[in-house]
Design a protein that fits this description.
The structure is a single chain. This protein is mainly alpha-helical and 436 residues long. The protein contains 19 helices and 6 strands. It is 63% helix and 5% strand.
Length: 436
Protein backbone atom coordinates (compact mmCIF):
# COMPACT_ATOMS: atom_id res chain seq x y z
CA UNK A 1 0.00 0.00 0.00
CA UNK A 2 1.37 3.40 -1.03
CA UNK A 3 0.23 6.17 1.36
CA UNK A 4 0.09 8.62 -1.57
CA UNK A 5 -2.84 6.67 -2.99
CA UNK A 6 -4.67 5.75 0.21
CA UNK A 7 -7.66 7.18 2.03
CA UNK A 8 -8.06 6.90 5.82
CA UNK A 9 -11.23 4.81 6.16
CA UNK A 10 -10.13 2.03 3.83
CA UNK A 11 -6.56 2.08 5.10
CA UNK A 12 -7.71 1.75 8.72
CA UNK A 13 -9.62 -1.42 7.83
CA UNK A 14 -6.33 -3.16 6.98
CA UNK A 15 -4.26 -1.96 9.92
CA UNK A 16 -3.04 -4.73 12.28
CA UNK A 17 -5.14 -3.38 15.15
CA UNK A 18 -8.30 -3.64 13.05
CA UNK A 19 -7.45 -7.20 12.06
CA UNK A 20 -6.79 -8.22 15.68
CA UNK A 21 -10.09 -6.70 16.78
CA UNK A 22 -11.94 -8.81 14.23
CA UNK A 23 -10.02 -11.88 15.40
CA UNK A 24 -11.12 -11.19 18.95
CA UNK A 25 -14.76 -10.86 17.96
CA UNK A 26 -14.61 -14.22 16.16
CA UNK A 27 -13.01 -15.95 19.13
CA UNK A 28 -15.33 -14.32 21.69
CA UNK A 29 -18.52 -15.06 19.76
CA UNK A 30 -17.43 -18.67 19.29
CA UNK A 31 -16.63 -19.00 23.01
CA UNK A 32 -20.06 -17.64 23.97
CA UNK A 33 -21.80 -20.21 21.78
CA UNK A 34 -19.59 -23.00 23.08
CA UNK A 35 -20.67 -21.93 26.56
CA UNK A 36 -24.33 -22.19 25.58
CA UNK A 37 -23.65 -25.70 24.30
CA UNK A 38 -21.94 -26.66 27.55
CA UNK A 39 -18.60 -27.32 25.90
CA UNK A 40 -16.91 -24.59 27.93
CA UNK A 41 -18.07 -22.65 30.99
CA UNK A 42 -20.41 -19.76 30.20
CA UNK A 43 -18.13 -17.63 32.32
CA UNK A 44 -15.42 -17.90 29.65
CA UNK A 45 -17.34 -15.94 27.04
CA UNK A 46 -18.44 -13.43 29.66
CA UNK A 47 -14.85 -12.90 30.78
CA UNK A 48 -13.78 -12.16 27.23
CA UNK A 49 -16.55 -9.65 26.60
CA UNK A 50 -16.14 -8.03 30.02
CA UNK A 51 -12.50 -7.35 29.20
CA UNK A 52 -13.49 -6.10 25.75
CA UNK A 53 -16.01 -3.71 27.29
CA UNK A 54 -13.10 -1.84 28.89
CA UNK A 55 -12.15 -0.83 25.31
CA UNK A 56 -8.62 -2.12 25.64
CA UNK A 57 -5.83 -0.92 23.40
CA UNK A 58 -4.50 -3.64 21.14
CA UNK A 59 -0.75 -3.87 21.75
CA UNK A 60 0.37 -4.72 18.23
CA UNK A 61 4.05 -4.57 19.16
CA UNK A 62 3.56 -7.02 22.02
CA UNK A 63 1.71 -9.47 19.77
CA UNK A 64 4.40 -9.19 17.12
CA UNK A 65 7.06 -9.81 19.76
CA UNK A 66 5.33 -13.05 20.74
CA UNK A 67 5.02 -14.02 17.09
CA UNK A 68 8.76 -13.52 16.66
CA UNK A 69 9.15 -16.48 19.02
CA UNK A 70 6.14 -18.63 18.10
CA UNK A 71 6.39 -18.02 14.33
CA UNK A 72 2.58 -18.22 14.33
CA UNK A 73 0.39 -15.14 14.25
CA UNK A 74 -2.83 -16.64 15.62
CA UNK A 75 -1.05 -18.35 18.52
CA UNK A 76 0.74 -15.09 19.29
CA UNK A 77 -2.59 -13.27 19.38
CA UNK A 78 -4.23 -15.89 21.61
CA UNK A 79 -1.27 -15.81 23.96
CA UNK A 80 -1.47 -12.03 24.29
CA UNK A 81 -5.23 -12.07 24.91
CA UNK A 82 -4.78 -14.76 27.55
CA UNK A 83 -2.25 -12.55 29.30
CA UNK A 84 -4.85 -9.78 29.45
CA UNK A 85 -7.96 -11.79 30.30
CA UNK A 86 -6.57 -14.40 32.63
CA UNK A 87 -7.50 -18.01 33.33
CA UNK A 88 -10.84 -18.03 31.49
CA UNK A 89 -9.04 -17.31 28.23
CA UNK A 90 -7.89 -20.92 28.05
CA UNK A 91 -11.30 -21.82 26.67
CA UNK A 92 -10.82 -19.71 23.55
CA UNK A 93 -10.28 -21.47 20.22
CA UNK A 94 -11.86 -24.75 21.40
CA UNK A 95 -12.10 -27.09 18.39
CA UNK A 96 -11.05 -24.33 16.01
CA UNK A 97 -8.12 -24.04 13.62
CA UNK A 98 -6.22 -20.92 12.60
CA UNK A 99 -7.92 -20.70 9.24
CA UNK A 100 -11.28 -20.45 10.97
CA UNK A 101 -10.08 -17.14 12.36
CA UNK A 102 -8.02 -15.95 9.40
CA UNK A 103 -10.53 -16.73 6.67
CA UNK A 104 -13.52 -15.45 8.57
CA UNK A 105 -11.66 -12.26 9.43
CA UNK A 106 -10.68 -11.77 5.80
CA UNK A 107 -14.33 -12.21 4.83
CA UNK A 108 -15.26 -9.46 7.28
CA UNK A 109 -12.56 -7.16 5.94
CA UNK A 110 -13.49 -7.72 2.30
CA UNK A 111 -17.19 -7.24 3.11
CA UNK A 112 -16.49 -3.96 4.87
CA UNK A 113 -14.15 -2.91 2.08
CA UNK A 114 -16.97 -3.65 -0.38
CA UNK A 115 -19.30 -1.36 1.53
CA UNK A 116 -16.79 1.48 1.22
CA UNK A 117 -16.35 0.78 -2.49
CA UNK A 118 -20.11 0.66 -3.04
CA UNK A 119 -20.40 4.08 -1.43
CA UNK A 120 -17.61 5.27 -3.72
CA UNK A 121 -19.49 3.98 -6.74
CA UNK A 122 -22.67 5.68 -5.59
CA UNK A 123 -20.83 9.01 -5.41
CA UNK A 124 -19.36 8.48 -8.87
CA UNK A 125 -22.73 7.53 -10.32
CA UNK A 126 -24.30 10.66 -8.87
CA UNK A 127 -21.57 12.83 -10.40
CA UNK A 128 -21.94 11.15 -13.79
CA UNK A 129 -25.71 11.54 -13.76
CA UNK A 130 -25.50 15.22 -12.84
CA UNK A 131 -23.01 16.02 -15.60
CA UNK A 132 -24.87 13.84 -18.13
CA UNK A 133 -28.09 15.74 -17.52
CA UNK A 134 -26.18 19.02 -17.78
CA UNK A 135 -24.84 18.09 -21.23
CA UNK A 136 -27.72 15.93 -22.42
CA UNK A 137 -28.09 17.92 -25.63
CA UNK A 138 -24.55 19.28 -25.99
CA UNK A 139 -23.59 18.10 -29.48
CA UNK A 140 -20.14 16.67 -30.05
CA UNK A 141 -18.47 14.43 -32.54
CA UNK A 142 -18.55 10.69 -32.11
CA UNK A 143 -15.32 8.97 -33.09
CA UNK A 144 -14.52 5.46 -34.22
CA UNK A 145 -10.87 4.47 -34.59
CA UNK A 146 -10.16 7.99 -33.33
CA UNK A 147 -11.64 9.41 -36.55
CA UNK A 148 -14.73 11.62 -36.85
CA UNK A 149 -17.81 9.43 -37.29
CA UNK A 150 -21.26 10.93 -36.61
CA UNK A 151 -22.63 13.43 -34.08
CA UNK A 152 -23.48 12.36 -30.53
CA UNK A 153 -23.89 14.44 -27.38
CA UNK A 154 -21.48 14.80 -24.50
CA UNK A 155 -24.33 13.78 -22.23
CA UNK A 156 -24.56 10.47 -24.06
CA UNK A 157 -20.86 9.86 -23.46
CA UNK A 158 -21.42 10.35 -19.74
CA UNK A 159 -24.62 8.30 -19.79
CA UNK A 160 -22.65 5.43 -21.27
CA UNK A 161 -20.16 5.71 -18.42
CA UNK A 162 -23.03 5.79 -15.91
CA UNK A 163 -24.54 2.62 -17.34
CA UNK A 164 -21.15 0.90 -17.22
CA UNK A 165 -20.45 1.83 -13.61
CA UNK A 166 -24.01 0.86 -12.68
CA UNK A 167 -23.17 -2.61 -13.97
CA UNK A 168 -19.94 -2.49 -12.00
CA UNK A 169 -21.93 -1.73 -8.86
CA UNK A 170 -24.25 -4.69 -9.45
CA UNK A 171 -21.25 -6.96 -9.95
CA UNK A 172 -19.68 -5.74 -6.71
CA UNK A 173 -22.90 -6.40 -4.80
CA UNK A 174 -22.78 -9.98 -6.09
CA UNK A 175 -19.06 -10.32 -5.34
CA UNK A 176 -19.62 -9.02 -1.81
CA UNK A 177 -22.29 -11.62 -1.17
CA UNK A 178 -20.02 -14.33 -2.52
CA UNK A 179 -17.07 -13.35 -0.35
CA UNK A 180 -19.07 -12.86 2.87
CA UNK A 181 -18.87 -16.40 4.21
CA UNK A 182 -17.78 -17.73 7.60
CA UNK A 183 -15.79 -20.88 8.33
CA UNK A 184 -15.67 -22.22 11.90
CA UNK A 185 -15.40 -25.90 11.04
CA UNK A 186 -12.14 -27.14 12.56
CA UNK A 187 -8.95 -28.67 11.30
CA UNK A 188 -10.18 -30.14 7.99
CA UNK A 189 -13.66 -28.71 7.90
CA UNK A 190 -15.51 -31.72 9.32
CA UNK A 191 -16.79 -30.08 12.54
CA UNK A 192 -15.32 -33.06 14.40
CA UNK A 193 -14.32 -30.90 17.37
CA UNK A 194 -16.80 -28.04 17.12
CA UNK A 195 -20.53 -27.99 16.56
CA UNK A 196 -21.81 -26.43 13.28
CA UNK A 197 -24.12 -24.19 15.31
CA UNK A 198 -21.04 -22.31 16.49
CA UNK A 199 -20.26 -21.39 12.89
CA UNK A 200 -23.85 -20.28 12.31
CA UNK A 201 -23.78 -18.18 15.47
CA UNK A 202 -20.51 -16.43 14.59
CA UNK A 203 -21.68 -15.88 11.02
CA UNK A 204 -24.87 -14.23 12.22
CA UNK A 205 -23.01 -11.97 14.62
CA UNK A 206 -20.59 -10.80 11.92
CA UNK A 207 -23.10 -10.42 9.09
CA UNK A 208 -21.80 -13.42 7.17
CA UNK A 209 -23.26 -16.71 5.95
CA UNK A 210 -21.83 -20.15 6.79
CA UNK A 211 -19.54 -21.62 4.15
CA UNK A 212 -21.21 -24.85 2.87
CA UNK A 213 -17.94 -26.81 2.61
CA UNK A 214 -14.83 -25.14 3.96
CA UNK A 215 -12.29 -28.01 4.14
CA UNK A 216 -9.79 -26.10 6.26
CA UNK A 217 -10.20 -22.89 4.29
CA UNK A 218 -12.93 -21.00 2.50
CA UNK A 219 -12.58 -21.99 -1.18
CA UNK A 220 -10.57 -19.41 -3.07
CA UNK A 221 -12.81 -19.31 -6.12
CA UNK A 222 -14.82 -16.82 -4.06
CA UNK A 223 -11.81 -14.57 -3.62
CA UNK A 224 -10.87 -14.93 -7.27
CA UNK A 225 -14.32 -13.70 -8.26
CA UNK A 226 -14.04 -10.78 -5.86
CA UNK A 227 -10.68 -9.54 -7.13
CA UNK A 228 -11.71 -10.14 -10.74
CA UNK A 229 -14.68 -7.87 -10.10
CA UNK A 230 -12.37 -5.17 -8.76
CA UNK A 231 -10.28 -5.60 -11.92
CA UNK A 232 -13.34 -5.07 -14.14
CA UNK A 233 -14.21 -1.90 -12.22
CA UNK A 234 -10.62 -0.74 -12.77
CA UNK A 235 -11.04 -1.38 -16.49
CA UNK A 236 -14.11 0.85 -16.51
CA UNK A 237 -12.20 3.55 -14.65
CA UNK A 238 -9.48 3.45 -17.26
CA UNK A 239 -11.97 3.56 -20.12
CA UNK A 240 -13.42 6.84 -18.88
CA UNK A 241 -9.99 8.19 -17.93
CA UNK A 242 -8.64 7.52 -21.42
CA UNK A 243 -11.65 9.25 -22.98
CA UNK A 244 -10.96 12.37 -20.92
CA UNK A 245 -7.26 12.23 -21.76
CA UNK A 246 -8.07 12.14 -25.46
CA UNK A 247 -10.56 14.98 -25.16
CA UNK A 248 -7.92 17.12 -23.43
CA UNK A 249 -5.38 16.85 -26.24
CA UNK A 250 -4.52 20.29 -27.61
CA UNK A 251 -5.86 19.45 -31.07
CA UNK A 252 -9.19 18.33 -29.55
CA UNK A 253 -9.64 20.27 -26.27
CA UNK A 254 -13.32 19.50 -25.87
CA UNK A 255 -12.95 18.85 -22.14
CA UNK A 256 -10.17 18.94 -19.60
CA UNK A 257 -9.38 18.31 -15.98
CA UNK A 258 -9.86 21.25 -13.64
CA UNK A 259 -6.65 23.29 -13.34
CA UNK A 260 -6.44 24.89 -9.92
CA UNK A 261 -5.02 28.35 -9.17
CA UNK A 262 -1.33 27.97 -8.50
CA UNK A 263 -1.16 24.56 -10.15
CA UNK A 264 1.86 23.87 -12.37
CA UNK A 265 1.79 21.60 -15.39
CA UNK A 266 5.46 21.30 -16.24
CA UNK A 267 8.78 22.10 -14.62
CA UNK A 268 10.07 23.28 -18.00
CA UNK A 269 7.08 24.64 -19.93
CA UNK A 270 4.86 27.15 -18.10
CA UNK A 271 2.05 26.82 -20.62
CA UNK A 272 1.32 23.14 -19.92
CA UNK A 273 -2.02 21.89 -18.54
CA UNK A 274 -1.63 18.12 -18.46
CA UNK A 275 -4.28 15.43 -17.74
CA UNK A 276 -2.31 14.14 -14.76
CA UNK A 277 -5.26 12.84 -12.76
CA UNK A 278 -6.64 10.64 -15.51
CA UNK A 279 -3.15 9.48 -16.46
CA UNK A 280 -2.70 8.54 -12.81
CA UNK A 281 -6.00 6.64 -12.93
CA UNK A 282 -4.78 4.69 -15.95
CA UNK A 283 -1.73 3.60 -13.96
CA UNK A 284 -3.77 2.67 -10.90
CA UNK A 285 -6.14 0.62 -13.05
CA UNK A 286 -3.17 -1.39 -14.29
CA UNK A 287 -2.21 -2.23 -10.73
CA UNK A 288 -5.72 -3.21 -9.64
CA UNK A 289 -6.08 -5.50 -12.66
CA UNK A 290 -2.72 -7.05 -11.85
CA UNK A 291 -4.06 -8.27 -8.48
CA UNK A 292 -6.69 -10.42 -10.18
CA UNK A 293 -4.17 -12.90 -11.60
CA UNK A 294 -2.65 -14.03 -8.27
CA UNK A 295 -6.17 -14.31 -6.86
CA UNK A 296 -7.02 -16.69 -9.69
CA UNK A 297 -3.83 -18.65 -9.05
CA UNK A 298 -4.81 -18.99 -5.37
CA UNK A 299 -7.77 -21.19 -6.27
CA UNK A 300 -5.67 -24.34 -6.67
CA UNK A 301 -4.55 -25.25 -3.14
CA UNK A 302 -3.23 -28.64 -2.06
CA UNK A 303 -5.85 -31.03 -0.69
CA UNK A 304 -7.75 -29.49 2.24
CA UNK A 305 -5.36 -26.58 2.53
CA UNK A 306 -1.91 -25.12 2.06
CA UNK A 307 -0.74 -21.55 2.76
CA UNK A 308 0.46 -20.55 -0.70
CA UNK A 309 -2.52 -18.20 -0.86
CA UNK A 310 -1.76 -16.50 2.44
CA UNK A 311 1.16 -14.27 1.49
CA UNK A 312 -0.61 -13.30 -1.73
CA UNK A 313 -3.70 -12.11 0.12
CA UNK A 314 -1.66 -10.09 2.58
CA UNK A 315 -0.62 -8.03 -0.46
CA UNK A 316 -3.68 -7.97 -2.65
CA UNK A 317 -6.38 -7.60 0.02
CA UNK A 318 -5.20 -4.19 1.23
CA UNK A 319 -3.58 -3.01 -1.99
CA UNK A 320 -6.45 -3.74 -4.38
CA UNK A 321 -9.18 -2.30 -2.17
CA UNK A 322 -7.18 0.72 -1.01
CA UNK A 323 -6.12 1.58 -4.56
CA UNK A 324 -9.62 1.14 -5.99
CA UNK A 325 -11.11 3.26 -3.20
CA UNK A 326 -8.67 6.04 -4.03
CA UNK A 327 -9.20 5.69 -7.79
CA UNK A 328 -12.99 5.87 -7.55
CA UNK A 329 -12.82 8.96 -5.34
CA UNK A 330 -10.33 10.60 -7.69
CA UNK A 331 -12.47 9.87 -10.75
CA UNK A 332 -15.51 11.31 -9.00
CA UNK A 333 -13.60 14.52 -8.38
CA UNK A 334 -12.49 14.65 -12.00
CA UNK A 335 -16.07 14.34 -13.23
CA UNK A 336 -17.47 16.85 -10.76
CA UNK A 337 -14.91 19.50 -11.74
CA UNK A 338 -14.48 18.57 -15.41
CA UNK A 339 -14.20 21.61 -17.67
CA UNK A 340 -16.42 21.14 -20.73
CA UNK A 341 -16.16 23.30 -23.85
CA UNK A 342 -19.33 23.09 -26.00
CA UNK A 343 -18.05 25.73 -28.43
CA UNK A 344 -14.96 23.66 -29.15
CA UNK A 345 -17.13 20.60 -29.60
CA UNK A 346 -19.20 22.44 -32.19
CA UNK A 347 -16.08 23.74 -33.92
CA UNK A 348 -14.72 20.19 -34.18
CA UNK A 349 -18.07 19.00 -35.51
CA UNK A 350 -17.84 21.62 -38.24
CA UNK A 351 -14.14 21.17 -38.92
CA UNK A 352 -14.39 18.63 -41.72
CA UNK A 353 -16.84 20.30 -44.07
CA UNK A 354 -19.91 18.27 -43.17
CA UNK A 355 -18.38 14.80 -43.60
CA UNK A 356 -20.20 13.65 -40.49
CA UNK A 357 -23.48 13.66 -42.47
CA UNK A 358 -22.28 11.32 -45.24
CA UNK A 359 -24.36 8.33 -44.15
CA UNK A 360 -27.61 10.27 -44.35
CA UNK A 361 -26.87 11.17 -47.96
CA UNK A 362 -25.94 7.55 -48.72
CA UNK A 363 -29.26 6.33 -47.32
CA UNK A 364 -31.23 9.03 -49.08
CA UNK A 365 -29.72 8.05 -52.43
CA UNK A 366 -30.63 4.39 -51.92
CA UNK A 367 -34.17 5.40 -51.00
CA UNK A 368 -34.29 7.49 -54.19
CA UNK A 369 -33.59 4.42 -56.30
CA UNK A 370 -29.78 4.40 -56.56
CA UNK A 371 -28.08 1.08 -55.82
CA UNK A 372 -26.15 0.98 -52.56
CA UNK A 373 -22.87 0.42 -54.41
CA UNK A 374 -23.41 3.45 -56.66
CA UNK A 375 -24.68 5.57 -53.78
CA UNK A 376 -21.57 4.75 -51.74
CA UNK A 377 -19.34 5.60 -54.73
CA UNK A 378 -21.06 8.93 -55.32
CA UNK A 379 -20.85 10.05 -51.71
CA UNK A 380 -17.33 8.76 -51.17
CA UNK A 381 -15.83 10.47 -54.21
CA UNK A 382 -17.09 13.82 -52.95
CA UNK A 383 -16.21 13.04 -49.34
CA UNK A 384 -12.62 12.27 -50.28
CA UNK A 385 -12.26 15.70 -51.87
CA UNK A 386 -13.36 17.26 -48.57
CA UNK A 387 -11.01 14.98 -46.62
CA UNK A 388 -8.04 15.85 -48.80
CA UNK A 389 -8.84 19.56 -48.48
CA UNK A 390 -8.71 19.14 -44.67
CA UNK A 391 -12.29 20.33 -44.45
CA UNK A 392 -11.89 23.55 -46.41
CA UNK A 393 -14.34 22.26 -49.02
CA UNK A 394 -18.01 21.64 -48.23
CA UNK A 395 -19.49 18.20 -48.77
CA UNK A 396 -22.94 19.69 -49.27
CA UNK A 397 -21.74 22.08 -51.96
CA UNK A 398 -19.82 19.35 -53.76
CA UNK A 399 -22.85 17.08 -53.73
CA UNK A 400 -25.03 19.88 -55.09
CA UNK A 401 -22.58 20.21 -57.98
CA UNK A 402 -22.48 16.47 -58.71
CA UNK A 403 -24.78 15.74 -61.63
CA UNK A 404 -25.27 12.08 -60.74
CA UNK A 405 -26.23 12.98 -57.18
CA UNK A 406 -28.55 15.77 -58.34
CA UNK A 407 -30.28 13.35 -60.69
CA UNK A 408 -31.58 11.58 -57.58
CA UNK A 409 -31.83 14.35 -54.93
CA UNK A 410 -32.77 18.03 -55.08
CA UNK A 411 -30.78 20.77 -53.35
CA UNK A 412 -33.46 20.98 -50.66
CA UNK A 413 -33.36 17.24 -50.08
CA UNK A 414 -29.59 17.33 -49.79
CA UNK A 415 -29.62 20.26 -47.40
CA UNK A 416 -32.09 18.42 -45.19
CA UNK A 417 -29.54 15.62 -44.71
CA UNK A 418 -27.12 18.04 -43.02
CA UNK A 419 -29.42 18.84 -40.09
CA UNK A 420 -27.52 18.23 -36.82
CA UNK A 421 -30.71 17.88 -34.76
CA UNK A 422 -31.58 14.71 -36.67
CA UNK A 423 -28.85 12.87 -34.79
CA UNK A 424 -30.22 13.93 -31.40
CA UNK A 425 -33.78 12.71 -31.91
CA UNK A 426 -33.43 9.68 -29.64
CA UNK A 427 -31.33 11.13 -26.85
CA UNK A 428 -34.38 11.07 -24.55
CA UNK A 429 -34.95 7.39 -25.34
CA UNK A 430 -31.39 6.47 -24.43
CA UNK A 431 -31.46 8.54 -21.23
CA UNK A 432 -34.71 6.84 -20.23
CA UNK A 433 -33.06 3.46 -20.69
CA UNK A 434 -30.07 4.46 -18.60
CA UNK A 435 -31.65 6.51 -15.84
CA UNK A 436 -35.20 5.20 -15.85
Amino acid sequence: MVPRYARPEMSALWEPESRFRIWFEIEAHATVKLGELGVVPKSAGKALWDWWATDPAIDVEAIEAIEAVTKHDVIAFLTWVAEQVGEEARFMHQGMTSSDVLDTALAVQLSRASDILLADLDALLEALRTRAEEHKYTPTIGRSHGIHAEPVTFGLKLAQAYAEFDRCRARLVTARAEIATCAISGAVGTFANIDPTVEAYVANKLGLTPEPVSTQVIPRDRHAMFFATLAVIAGSIERLAVEIRHLQRTEVLEAEEYFAPGQKGSSAMPHKRNPILTENLTGQARMIRAYALPALENVALWHERDISHSSVERFIGPDATITLDFALARLTGVIEKLLVYPERMQANLDAMGGLVHSQRVLLALTQAGVSREDAYRLVQRNAMKVWESNGTLSLLELLKSDAEVRAALSEEELADKFDLDYHLAHVDTIFARVFG
